[in-house]
Amino acid sequence: MLEIEPHGIRIDGRLWIGFERTLRLPNYGKRHPLPAGLGALPIRRAAELSDRLPEAWRQRVGADDILLPLHDREALFVLFVPAERSAFAVKVAAGGINAVSGAPFDAQVRNAAQDYLVCPPQAWLDGINSGDGTVRQFVATRLGSGQSIEGQLSGSEDEAGVQFLVFPARPELVFESAPAGEHQVETEAFAAETPLRMGLAAGGELEQKIYPDPYGADVWSERPRASFTAHLVHADDWAELTGTPTPPTPITRELYRAYGLPWFELADAHLGDVPASPRLASVRALEDRPHPPSETERQAPEGGTIMAHCKLRERLRLLNLENAGTSVLDASPEELLAAEAPRRASPILKEAFFQTSDTTDRNELPELGGLEFAIQEERRAVIEAGQRGIARLLNEGEEAELTPAEELGAEAIIQLTGRPAILIQQGRFFPPPAEWQTLEPHRASIEALFKSVGRIEVEGHPDLEWVGTGFLVGDDVIMTNRHVATEFTSPRSDGRWGITPGMKARIDFAEELGGGTPAEVRIKALIGIHGRLDMALFRLDRSGGGALPPRLPILSPASRPRRLAKRQVYVVGYPAWDGRRNDPEPMQRLFGNIFNVKRLQPGEILGFSAGDKIFTHDCSTLGGNSGSCVVDLETHQVLGLHFGGRFREANHAVALWELQNDPLIQRAGIRIG
Q1: How far apart are CA 600 and CA 630, in angstroms?
Q2: What's the chain's Rg over C-alpha atoms?
Q3: Average pLDDT in the 584-608 region?
Q4: Where do the DSSP E strands lie in 23-174?
Q5: How far is CA 92 from the centre of its chain?
Q6: What count of Cα atoms within 13 Å lies in the side-chain half-sphere of residue 618?
Q7: Confidence category of residue 581, pLDDT binned at 50, 70, 90
Q8: What would the pLDDT profile of 314-366 be if each residue is shown by its tens digit?
Q9: Which one of 62, 353, 369, 615 has the fewest CB atoms closer than 10 angstroms to its CB?
C-alpha cells in the first residue's frame, strides 16, 4: 500500500521516502562533503491535479505518481527511512536512466551487478553513482537543454522526473535487527524540516557511497511492491498549478557557510561501495552558465517571449535603459537597490539575490549578524557585476561575451529599474522611476481604475486567508482565474459547482499599503468556471447597501490595435510571496516585507496567439496577481485576464477581446467593448 503524505511517500507503513532541497555544489574537480537538508519539498498527488496538467503530461501520469517543485539548477536528495526490522531494495532512475548502473530502467532485481539501493544501510541518495565513494549531485534542469542525464545518455528527454521501484524482502524473511552496516552521522545535529517539466542533470561530486547489498539479490521479491514517478515541476509554475506557495530558492555556498549550517561526513569506512558505471561516468556536469536561448527566444516573433541573455542589449533598448545607461552605471549599488528594493520580488531577483531556506518560525534560526553582512556583500557584488555587463553591452554590442555573473547582474538591474511594481496608498500610486515617467500623464485614469480591482478573501479555508485578485467586469460581476475559484468552490451532488459548504468569500477593493478602511463586498454565487480558459465569474451581493465601483471597460475586437507587440500595458493586483507565513529574514531586509497589497505593475505586450486566445506580457507579477486585469496604457481599457507566468520567459493573459461570443461571457451579461 502506498500513501502520499504532504512531504513524503509511505509504503506499507514500513518505508518512508522523502525529498529534501539542499545546497547545489559546483563541479570543479573537488569532492564535497554532504550538505544539510534545507527543508522538505512539498508533494502533491499528480492525479488530483490532472485536469490542470497539459495533455502530454496527463498521458504519463500514473495513479501513484507525485509532483514536486524545483527551481532551475536547484539540488535535491532522496531520503529513505525504513521501519525497525524492515529492509527494502529500491531502484531509482533519473529520466529512465538507472542512477546506480546507468542502464535503462527495468523492473527486475538481478544477481548480476547491483543496480539498486538497499535500505538500510542506504539512508540518502544525493545523485548518480560516480564510483570511488562519490555521487554526482542531482540538479534540476529544464528539458530541451540537452544537459539532463536522460538527454545525454538516451538522446531524448521523454521520461523526465525520478522513477522508483520498491521491492520488499520475501515474506518468509524477518530481519531481527538492522544490518551491521548501519552508520551514524559525525556532526552536530541539524533539525531540518521534515507548467514546466524539469529533468535531472549531474552536478558537483559528493562524498557518498552506494552500499553493496548485504543480503543478496535472492532476498528480494520478484515484483515491486510500489512503483511511482516523481514528476518535477518548475517552481515558478507550482503556485499556479497547486494554489500553494512556491518554495524559495536555496542559499549560496557563501551564505550557507555564514549561516553556520553543517557538512556531513559518514562513518562508513567499513562498508563497501558499488563500482561506477562507465556509462554514468560519461555524463557531463551541468554548465554553470544560464541556459542558452531557445530558437523561439532567438527569433522573438510576435507571440514570442522575453529575450534571453544574448538579447540583453535589445532589452536595454526596449526598457529605455540604453539612454538612461549612464545614470544606471553611475549609481552606487546601494542607490539602485534602495530605490526599488521595497517594491517587488521578481523571480530574477530571487535568483540574483539568493535567500535563506524557508521557515515558519524565525526563532529556530541562528543569529543573523554574519548572514546579513554576507547578504549585503553579495547584493553589492551582483549589482557591480551587472553594471560591468551593461557597460560592455553598451560599448561592444551583442558580441560582448559576458560572464554568468555579469548576465545575472544585468538582468537584475533591468528588472529593478525597468519593470517596477509600484505601491499604492490611499488610492494613489507612488512616484514611478525615471524609466516610467510615461505613467504620470495618465495618473488620473489609472487611479480611477484602482477602485474596481480587489483582493479575493476567504473564510473557512484550511490554509489560506486570501486566494488571488479579481476585478469588476459587470455591474455586480467579478472576473478572476479558474485556479483561484477552485480554492473555495467545489462540485455539488447534482454535479454543478458552487461555493464550498462551510466557506465564505468576499472581495476587498482596498487592501493598500498602510491598511486603511476595508471596502468589502460578499461574493454571493458562482456564475461559472470556463471549461478551457483559466477564467471564472462570480456574482456579488448588492444587498449590503452602498454603490459598487464602476465596471472596467473591456477592449472590443474592432478597437484592437493592429500591432500588439511592444504596446505599453499595466497590471493592477496583489503580488504575494506567502500570504500565510512570516517571510524569511533576508526577504524582510531586501524587499521590506511588503506583499499582499495592491500595486501598479507596468510593462509591455510581447506577443499574441490568436488560436489560444492568449497574449504574453512582461509586467512584474507574483503569485497573488492571479486574476489581475491587464490594461492598455493608452486607452485604459482591459485587454486581458492575467493567469500565470514563467521565469525569464513571459507572463500570460487571456485575450478578453476574443471572447465576445463566448457562452460564459454572454450568460453573465458582460459587454465586450
Answers
A1: 10
A2: 26
A3: 66
A4: 31-32, 34-35, 37-40, 44-45, 66-70, 75-82, 88-94, 97-98, 117-119, 124-125, 127-131, 134-142, 162-168
A5: 24
A6: 25
A7: very low
A8: 555 545 554 444 566 666 666 665 444 333 334 444 444 443 333 333 333 33
A9: 369
